[in-house]
Design brief:
single chain, 208 residues, alpha+beta, Enolase-like, domain 1, 2 domains, 23% strand
Length: 208
């Protein structure tokens, strides 16, 4: 089938040139291969070998999260199928990838589509590395699910109760932490030294 001949031909050409990581993430400073670079490298080869890449979104999930600065972030996950179709005989091979992106405006789906396309092509054509429509172009800091300062205060209270050999106070603190939710309780537990965890497991199983 011609579709596989076209994919192999494009893979062979991309193996010689690759796509360099010449774009830089503005927030965290790492280098990446942007969607424009992928379009620029692949478009002439797709035309040359008569290969069409046709996207189809089969699943979409969106959630809202709060940014570190108090704004709203839209986190989008797309499951996208790409039909690689030969213009010569209509033969087809489908590649499925996941695209994820986060944006404070209305671009999270666009960025997720770009990410899905980019990585579908990286995988299908085995594109090597030679050196803001793109999800890699920027990063967002999500507000932590728990109040880290409050967790620290509870940690100090636990340590004080242990040092004072006050199991009654310790039990009360652990009960309060559990009532604050699983995320908070897990965060508190992660801050405790091993010997204190062992003490709680051995003496306060119902509260641990």
């Amino acid at each position: 089938m011609n579709v596989y001949e076209a994919i192999c031909a494009i893979t062979a050409e991309m193996s010689k040139t690759g796509i360099s990581k010449d774009s830089k993430n503005s927030s965290q400073g790492y280098m990446f291969r942007g969607i424009d670079a992928v379009y620029g490298a692949l478009s002439p080869l797709l035309a040359k070998y008569g290969l069409c890449v046709l996207p189809r979104v089969v699943d979409r999930a969106v959630s809202e999260q709060q940014s570190k600065n108090g704004g709203v972030l839209f986190y989008t996950t797309l499951k996208v199928e790409f039909d690689f179709v030969s213009s010569k005989d209509g033969s087809k091979h489908t590649v499925c990838t996941i695209g994820e992106a986060m944006d404070s405006g209305d671009k999270s789906s666009n960025k997720a589509m770009s990410a899905a396309y980019k990585y579908a092509c990286f995988q299908a054509f085995c594109i090597p590395t030679e050196g803001d429509n793109d999800a890699d172009a920027s990063s967002h800091e999500v507000k932590p699910k728990v109040d880290t300062k409050l967790v620290s205060k509870y940690t100090d209270r636990v340590l004080a109760a242990i040092q004072g050999d006050n199991d009654s106070a310790l039990r009360e603190i652990l009960t309060e932490a559990k009532s604050a939710g699983n995320d908070f309780a897990a965060a508190l537990w992660s801050t405790l030294p091993g010997p204190i965890k062992n003490h709680i497991r051995d003496n306060m199983k119902e509260s641990a």
